[in-house]
Specification:
globular; five-stranded antiparallel sheet; about 80 residues; about 30% helix; 5 strands
């Protein structure tokens, strides 16, 4: 599970066996987890995060979107 960054107690990462899916990022904090598609940025699945916290996380994903896509392409190859 490559971790991209950590920010304010959140861990941003992707699983090493997910290269067949479109680029996305997982975010965990405590027992809560959310998955965001990156193109366009939208929630794919949320377990436990409240709407207000999701807004904060989504803003960070929007800010880091290009970096996440670059990290995805480096790890999985840009052909995925």
């Amino acid at each position: 599970m490559p971790t991209v960054p950590r920010w304010n107690g959140y861990r941003f990462y992707f699983f090493s066996n997910e290269g067949q899916e479109p680029p996305h990022i997982h975010v965990d904090r405590g027992e809560n987890t959310v998955k965001f598609w990156l193109d366009p940025v939208e929630i794919a699945r949320n377990i436990g995060f409240a709407p207000r916290e999701l807004n904060v996380i989504e803003r960070k994903v929007q800010e880091e979107r290009e970096n996440f896509i670059k990290a995805w392409d480096v790890y999985f190859g840009s052909g995925c």
